Amino acid sequence: MRHLVSGWLVALALIGLCVPQAVAEYADVVLNRRAEKEGVRPVIFPHWFHRIRFRCKVCHAELGFKMRVGSNDFKMADIVEGRFCGACHNGDIAWAPDRCDLCHSGKRGLPTGIFGGHETGGPGRW
Amino acid sequence: MRVFIFPADSLRAAIAACLICLGSVTLAEDWTPLNKDGIHDPRSPAIKQLQEPAAALSKLIPDTAGNMVRWVQALEKGEINPRASIRPDTKIRVYDSDVLLNLKGGMPIVRFPHRQHTLWLDCVNCHDHLFKAETGATKFSMLKILEGEQCGVCHGAVSFPLTECFRCHSVARPGQAPKPSLPIAIPAGAVPPK
Lengths: 126, 194
What we know:
- The complex is a heterodimer.
- Chain A is 32% helix and 9% strand.
- By secondary structure, chain A is α+β, with helices and mostly antiparallel strands.
């Protein structure tokens, strides 16, 4: 019985160590090259949400998004003029770029990268 | 002085308890709510407007890793119907051809299906900057893949993770069990392929 109790105590301690406190959704991307310096929250780009609506090739072939996180150097002006996110976020296919908060919804201080666990040394680390 | 020796019974109980608890934690938290995911600002006005992952993903064919969704199956079965282009002049290319890789290794042979990949991607996403179009011309390395190169540009970041060995290493060699157990032991002094 005593063994069982100490077993549970050790188990609880181990679980406390291994359970992550917060887990972003797999493949969520944080973009913060300029956002915070410009006074807005970092951008959260959820791959899962977009994948339900568009195949990878739309953004990564038609629109020219390179696959390395942080390697696409564009500004809000590009989006407003219809490039990158602006190809859809134009008030027609998806919400327009004047809805700042919907994309700029990240926690302050986060680095640009790919989140959500499971990644090894993947693109976000480069 | 009393020396505490960890009894084997305790250890077994601890491991069992861990597995039970972790199992239930995993089940309960397939998809974290946006305000608790560690990257969204819980005070952002977007939290109340953005779609929650569980609302969309719980309705799709379930998986045990990544987004907990079998994306290719969800697409093939019509659970989702993502657009393949947004410009009228874009040629949508789907290529149906399997390539067998890792013919000389110890793990089961890799069957790379072009069709499933080109349902999502265009040829230019991989050719020729990641892989030469000619079969056999590209030297693959699991080390590179684990570092986010080659297949690892997507697998391990956005498509199913590298924990799922046998989804790629899916063709058993002669005399090999169809689904071998995970190779957990790496021989001492093993040299990674160059």
